[in-house]
Amino acid sequence: MRPALVLASYRAAGGRREGIAGIAAAVEIVHTYSLVHDDLPCMDDDAQRRGRPTTHVQFDVPTATRAGFLLMPAAVEELARGAAELGLSPARAGSLAAILLEASGIRGMVAGQWLDLEAEGRNPDGIAALAGMHGRKTGALIEAACLLGGHAAGADPPTVEALSRYGREIGLAFQIADDLLDATATTAELGKTAGRDATLAKATYVSLLGIEGTRVEADRHADRALTALRRGGLESESLASLAGYIVRRRS
Q1: What is the pTM of this model?
Q2: In this structure, CATH architecture of domain 2-248
Q3: Considering only CA atoms, which of 217, 238, 216 is closest in space to residue 226?
Q4: Model pLDDT for residues 58-103, shown as the tens digit of each residue
Q5: Angle between helical axes of 2-12 and 237-248 (0-180°, round to 10)
């Protein structure tokens, strides 16, 4: 989904060159690193991902830990190749790398995971606290995917702002939908162990709002994402479809 957001944002901002695939791949490589580490015993300790044994189960914990770390420079290398294929200047390529690394680092995805682990076994402190945690853990990389597409296309500031707002809202919608799926879908549907949030006593939207309230909250953020596009004057069937998919998916 994250590469699809890069591609859709790039095209919504007027980009047409094929080199954007490298930028999209870089985002997915970072996402893959996050999954490998998220499944480790010191994190969520999960044995299954996408219907297969997790990396540390298939190999071992040291191998999975190293593999996750090594995916980060691989992502930057792929981004650099994509930027070169797009004909972007070194300065523009550097700004794209900064967006990706900021979103995946201690002020983004890593911070969100840290907060998620700290919140285990405690009652959620309210919607604002959950949104802050999820906005980093999941939302930061999703927003970055939209920003990367826009900046790679040379979008003007209003377009970049619209894509940023869309990505921020759809990032929250994605994680809220994930909370809902963990409570309502099966392991076969998810490709990973269902019910892990409850087992680990995670702070989730379901634990705070219940199933129906969580569904309403996901739809609310998806609607806000579409509003951001309209206000920014962006018409993108792909981005609109992705917003609908994010809150209606079953895996």
Answers
A1: 0.93
A2: Orthogonal Bundle (1.10)
A3: 238
A4: 999 999 999 999 999 999 999 999 999 999 999 999 999 999 999 9
A5: 160
